Structure formats: structure tokens, C-alpha cells
Amino acid sequence: MTSLEKLENKSIYILREAYSRFRNIALLWSIGKDSTTLLWLCRKAFFGQIPFPVLHIDTSYKFKEIYRFREKYAAAWDLNLIVEKNETALDQGMNHTVGKFECCNSLKTQSLKQAIKKYDFKALLLGIRRDEHGIRAKERFFSPRNADQRWNYGSQPAELWDLYQTRLENDQHVRVHPLLGWREIDVWNYIQQEKIPVPDLYFATNKKRYRSIGCEPCCNPVASQANSLSKIIRELKTTDTAERSGRAQDKEDSYNMQKLRSLGYM
Amino acid sequence: MKDETLKVAVCGHIDHGKSTLIGRLLLDTKSLPRNKLKELDIIAKAFGEEAQLAHLSDQLKEERERRITIETTQIFFKTSRRSYCLIDTPGHLEFIRNMLTGTSQADAAVLVVDIHEGVQDQTRRHAYLLKFLSLCHIIVVVNKMDLAQYSKAEFKKIEEQILALFSELQMKPPPIIPAGAKRGENISRPSKFMSWHRGPYLLKALDGLTLADQSAKPAFRLPVQDIYKVHGEEIIVGKIVCGRIREGQKILVLPQGRPAVIKTINLFGKKKKSAAVDQNIGLTLTAPVPIERGNVFCEAEASPHLPQNFRGNIFWLHSSELAEGQTVELRCATQVLRCTVAKIMEAVDPAHLTLVEKNASVLKQNQAGLIEFTLLTAAVLEKHSDIPELGRYTIETDAGLFGAGTVLSLTT
User: Fold this and answer.
1) Is-contact A266 A177, C-beta < 8 A?
2) Residue B226: its chain A contacts at CB < 8 A?
3) Nearest chain A Cα to B70, which residue?
4) Which residue of A8, A142, A161 is the best one to mutate when testing the B interface, meaning the one whose CB has the most B CBs within 10 A?
5) Range list of β-strands (E), B134-272
6) Which residues of B touch A13 (CB under 8 A)?
7) In the A/B pair of chains, how many CB contacts fall below 8 A?
């Protein structure tokens, strides 16, 4: 097996395990390269027809390209798409100028809470990876959250071999991370191998491209000439800047991500 | 470079320098993004000290303040030989579950020992757990040699302790490397201060490890994970844990022992004539047979005998005791089985490698034990050394994971 085949097989085992143990699950699709790769893996794992909803947490501040991409592939792949927004906060004028931490927490984490409650999801599939961020490196493949979604990183349960913990106490749900062991370059190699469509924002125009995409006001492009998959892969082999360096929230405070994540952020 | 990623757990006693060693490997292999180095500077200033290499993996606020590792972390780097995934594991007893979590995913381990402190409780416990998890590739690093003026005589003393520990555990003697992670001596290059050391430096020793090929094993086994209905057809999914399967092959569905024949093999939507170990496949059968999660598909001509009893080792994580006569629920691959603890043959304190009690009545938290189980459920079990996936188990209750272990021998 090649290393990509190994990663693919392990992720698909985890996806099937999550579905087998919980049934009432959803895939969290941010439309970025990682969650789109995860979506692709789901289509493979379940033989073309994903048997659970695909959930998009919409802050309403995403790039236009993201919305276009979402509609196109939701139709093409026959997805059961759920779009969730924190309407109350949006009505009250929540946006990044109020404070990035407040905005992320309110428009992303709170919307997610809202959706979990509304649909009674027992598990959520997320495309986070260990190499993205030091705090995400501390995650488990199956990570339990209480009703407040709090991540108790100080006392995570043991996770041995591939015998993942799936018993839940009342009101708990599990965050499942099938891509945890993938690196950024693995994701791009896989996208190239499988010909997975991703938003054009990742490809350079005018010597700039996005390495990580989310809300338009909080993402900055990086200087890059990479306008094709092979060029992105070549660029990653030589770069010494971090993947999320274009993301605003990480910079504000070294422990911001830890704080956000402990409150239920992805 | 080979297309492979070796997963290496870094273990050892508190403060012997595990996280610093990881920081050093990342720095020397140029695996750090520019802003990471800047962030380290900012953080080090906040804590009023020099930039510490340990902060690279100790990312949690509590970890940096308490200057310890709490949670296991995985970090990547590569050499000209292959890619590595380093798993940092905590040294404190209270975080032993995190150490087990990290190490159960590893192919190899680096055990770090401080030149001044030598073999300590957590060194013993970790060495014991490496044996318990059947990790056979272990490299020992004797760290902080700079504090001992790179003295060969000092090193020899510690080396003796380490060899004694491994011999006590009946493990093969590991390569032992004198090193200084803080200054990078004998980590990614040979040290000019320790030219007396004949063996390789750490990265060279890591690059020299070769993993056993798992694909040559016989006898097809596939624990059933789930059953899907796709376009009116029942597809049975699972991961092949041993051997190969081909279209038309006769199998037995255990534990019931029902015969069946493979009609099609589907790998992620593509039809295949055959499939092999580690592939997650979908199968259809030529005639309907009742199947559920936890069944194990076995090659008809080489199906195993179902055990009545088995002997297994166990590491007990929970504060409640495991008692003789108790009935427990085991998870092994996709099977859930009930067993009775017939006998606790040995209770061992892994920190001191002392036998607490022969024929003990209970096993306490953080003790390891040798247990005779009587099976109440028919199930497929194999020796861990034969088929790991069918030879390892966790013990769970509604309150979570209580213990874990491996199968040493079976009686049918």
C-alpha cells in the first residue's frame, strides 16, 4: 500500500465506524479542501450515496465562490445539505469588527450547537488535521463533547489502537476526526490523485492564493505563483510558512485557539 | 525517499527531555514554519526564559505553565529516507492513559533517560508498556550528556541500568545513544564531544529501522463492521485483518459457523477480483446468510477453533478494582464479548517491576495483570502475536474505558 492508500483506508474505517456506532451523524462541510476531501471519502465509503446529512455552518461572511461551489456540488453529488446560521446574532449585527473571538464563537460555535440540538446529532465528522495547529495536534480520532460542547482537553479518555470510544453519556456528542493523521501535502496529493474539485480560491491569480479558506474578512491570501495542483504541491515542499498563517484568529493570542476549541470551536 | 511514514512514540520519565528532543528533531530537520519560531520567541518572553524547544509540542497553556506534557501530540518531520510522525507522550503517572493512547498508534519508540537521574519509575513503567503493546523497535537515548561533561564513564553506568531493565523485562537489548537534545549532540549529527560512542546518532538509528511486512500472513479474516443496503443490494463492509480474499471464495461466518460464498468484492465503488490485508472492502454473498456486526468472515479451509478460555495480559486504568469472578465486557475488533475473570494469576506494579501478588483477588489502578478469562460469548480470538487486530481488546463499561490488553494464549 502507498502512504495515501493507508491514510484513505484508515479514514474510511473511521467513517464507517462512526456511522455504524451512531447512525444519526452529520458531516461538517466548510467547503474548504479538507472537508471536501472528507466528503469525497464519505462518497467512497458509502458507495456513492452518503446516508447522512452534510452540514454547512454559514456565517454569511464566506467568500462568494464558496456559496457557488456549495450549490453546484450539493446538486451534483445529491447531498442532503443542511445550512445552519445563527440568525439571532446576525440580526443583532454580529461581525468580525465586534471582535474576532466573539464573532467565531457566536457565528460558528453557537450555530453548530444550535444544529446539534435541533437534529439531535450524536456524532459530527470534521476534517481537522493534527499538523494544522498545535492545539488540534492534541485531538483524538473520537473526541467526546458535553452538552455545552466543551472539549475537556485535560482529561480526554484513552484511545487504544482502533478500538474507538463510542459510548455516550446523556447529552454528549462525539467529534470524529478521520483526517487527523493527514498532512496538508497528503490532502493535496490525494486531491490530485482523485481529481477532487476544490474552490478556485486555492489557485493563484495575480500572484496570490488562499492556503486556507473561511470567512472573507478574516482570510488573507499568501504570495504565490501556484495556479495548478502540481504547483501547489511543489510549493508546499519548499515553503516555510504555516498553513493557517493567513487566518486572523490565530495571531491575536497564542492561546486563542485553545480557548475557542475548548468552547466547542472546530 | 521511501513512500512511508514511521510513527515513533517518544517516552520516558518526567523532565528527562522528551519534548525538548522532539523540538530538536524538528529544528534540525527544518520542519518548522517561520512564524512558529517567532511564536516561540513571544511565548518564551512571556514566561521570562529562553525559547524552549519543548514548547513546540507542549501547546496547551497548562503544559507551558507547568512545564510538563499533559496530552499526547503528533508532529511530522522527514529525512532523506522517509517521513516520520513523532508522538510525544506525557511522563506523569496521572496522564498514563495519554501515554497509552499515543504509543498504541506507534511503530517504534524512543525511550529517553536523563544521564543524572538514570532509570526512574516512569522509565520502568514506560518500558513495561512498550513490551505490553508488543512494540519491538525501541531506541534508548541517554539525554543531557552536556550536564555530565559528555563523560563516557557516566554513560556506561546508566547504560548498565538500562540493559538490566530490558533483561528483567525479557526484552532484547536496545541500541543506546548518548545525546544532548538541547544542543543537538548525537541527534541529527554525530557529536564531536562523544567520539567514543561507536553506534549511530539518533536520526541514523531511526532511518535504519525496517518494519516487518504484514502482507505475507495466511488465512483470511474480516471482522464485519456494518451492512449497507445500496440499490437494493446488501453490502457487507469491513477491514481485512489477515490474508487475502478472491471472488468465488468459500468462507465461514463465525461464531455461528455458517458457510457462504463471496460473490463480489467492492473497493470504494470499484469492483475487484481480489483484496488483501488492511483494505476496507465491501462484499456481497452468492446466497443470503444472516450477518451482523461482530461476525468474523474466515477462510473456510483455515477457520479457527473458538476458544473457551484465554490468557491475556491487562493494564488497568480505572480507579475501581477488577476483581476475580467479575464479569466484564470486552471489545475486540468489531466484536463485543462477555467474559468472566476466572483467575488473576499475577498482579504487577509496572513502576518497580515487582510482583504485587500471585493469584491476586483484585487488580488495582495502574497495575498490570496476567489474567485467565472464561468466555461467556462465542467469539473469534487469536494470539496477539499472530493477528494483532483479533488479539487485542479493551474493557469498557458505560462509564468509559477501564482497561486494555492482549491475548497471550488460547484454550479451545
Assistant:
1) no
2) 16, 19-20
3) A154
4) A161
5) 137-143, 176-178, 221-230, 233-239, 244-246, 250-254, 258-267, 270-272
6) 225, 239, 280
7) 137
* Phi–psi pair at A242, nearest 5 degrees: -80, 155
- Distance (Å) from the alpha carbon of A103 to chain B's nearest alpha carbon: 22
The residue type of B125 is R
Q: Between the CA of residue A125 and those of A174, A196, B282, what are the distances in Å? A: 9, 19, 21
Which residues, including other chains, have CB under 8 Å from residue B256's CB and lie 6 or more apart? B290, B295
ipTM associated with this complex? 0.91
Q: Which residues in chain B (203-242) have CB-CB distances under 8 A to chain A?
A: 225-226, 228, 230, 235, 237, 239
User: Are B32 and A240 within 8 A, CB to CB?
Assistant: yes
For residue B11, list its beta bridge partners: B111
Question: Per-residue DSSP letters for A182-248?
Answer: --HHHHHHHHHHHT----GGGS-BTTEE-SS-SBGGGB--EE----SHHHHHHHHHH--S-GGGGBH
Rounded alpha-carbon distances, angstroms, from residue A127 to A134, A184, A245, B248: 16, 11, 18, 38
Q: Name which of A2, A12, A242 is nearest B33 (Cβ-Cβ).
A: A242
| Separation between Cα atoms, residue B149 and residue B72, nearest integer Å | 32
If phi over 0 gives left and psi between -120 and 50 gives alpha, with beta otherwise, what is residue A77? Answer: alpha
Cα(B26)–Cα(B101) distance, integer angstroms? 22
Residue B161, Cβ neighbours under 10 Å: how many?
15
**B252-264 residue pLDDT tens:** 999 999 999 999 9
Alpha carbons within 13 A on the beta-carbon side of A158: 28
Peptide bond into B200 cis (omega under 30): no
Record the cell numbers describing residue A104, joined without a space. Answer: 467565531
pLDDT per residue as tens digits for the range B352-383: 777 777 888 999 998 999 999 999 999 999 99
pLDDT tens digit sequence for B15-64: 888 888 888 888 888 877 665 655 555 555 554 444 466 666 666 666 66
- Of the candidates B61, B237, B394, which has its C-beta nearest A16's C-beta? B237
* Three-state DSSP class for residue A156: coil
Report helix, strand and coil shares of chain B as percent, to nearest 5. 25, 40, 40
The number of helices, as runs of H, and strands, as runs of E, in chain A is 10, 8
pTM of the model: 0.90
C-alpha cell, B62: 497548562
Which whole-number Å values give the CA distances from B200 to A53, B27, B175, B190, B206, in the listed order?
53, 20, 9, 8, 9
